[in-house]
Automatic annotation (TrEMBL):
EC number(s) stated in the UniProt entry for this protein: 2.7.6.1
One annotated GO biological process: 5-phosphoribose 1-diphosphate biosynthetic process
Ranges for domain Ribose-phosphate pyrophosphokinase N-terminal: 88-203
Protein name: ribose-phosphate diphosphokinase
Amino acid sequence: MAAIAFSSPSSYPISAKGGDVSFPSAPRFVRCAALPSQSPECDITKLLQLPSNGKVLSAELSGIVPSPNMRARLLEKEPARTPDNRLRIFSGTANPSLAKEIACYLGMDLGKINIKRFADGEVYVQLQESVRGCDVFLVQPTCPPVNENLVELFVMIDACRRASARSITAVIPYFGYARADRKTQGRESIAAKLTANLITEAGANRVLVCDLHSGQSMGYFDIVVDHVYGQPVILEYLEGKQISRDIVVVSPDVGGVARARGFAKKLSDAPLAIVDKRRQGHNVVEVMNLIGDVKGKVAVLVDDMIDTAGTIANAAALLKDEGARAVYACCTHAVFSPPAIERLSSGLFEEVIVTNTIPPALKNDFPQLTVLSVANLLAETIWRVHGDVSVSSIFQ
């Protein structure tokens, strides 16, 4: 199946006081290397007919033919599937379009849930269907507004626990506070550990996260953590673009070398370069030096997230100065705090490739931006967790 372009629905019917909650629309289109649905009930072509800002989208918008490698690997290792009414997927208000895609891949509907805010801002959650004895998966990234979405997740977990769910898995595509994973100065909080404790105490039995900022954060949880990677989705897309000739993978800082090395190995064992930087303060960086050769090559910057884009923009400027022919930026989490859009759309990048772990917003759209869907990857992981099947085999 060729890559298709589609837009998820701009709203999801979660009941609220006074009417439905409306969510911001996705960008003009979302590109994804779609895997075939596992159920005839989910027809991905129907999503192509959904309007976005008055425009009907179609597969011809993308025109990208991805490599079939990832799809073939998944299908080869896929466990036998039978209908199971013990699986429930619910969405919070943080990223309902991603949750809907996950449910679509699994050939099921999202669970009915009532989420609303009281006048004073308190969160109210009520499950509108029975989950007694069920494996419940709650899709809720802790993206901005971080604290709002985090508390909503706690209340959702508590509601499922009190409704006698057999197991509760918090599906957190983007884990907020992940960067506060250690003390760099005296009298600092390790907020990543605190957040992990709160999720556990709320009643979650398992956590499913995507591309944590640092691997040691898994150890902060006292429950099982399934850590999945967005790299296969991005690699699939890059293979389809056929830019592997004269390519060099670049880590924008020393801390991301292991991530970039793994990415380079899977990208035809491409050479590696490293940008050395000195951080002068939070969200303020200064690029100092380049380790490696990028002259006349296509540089692919790889990071787990883009926040204010200071790190990756300074790295791209350095790569251009060192003679790189083109610069691509690849990351899983598009946080895009101001002034990220101005930096990313300044002409430094040939393309900025991100995923939809954080819901893309129209205000953050720019010509070089490409958003890839991780819904199929997360859905496959959910099914394997529910069926007690190996998750790591997806990435082998």
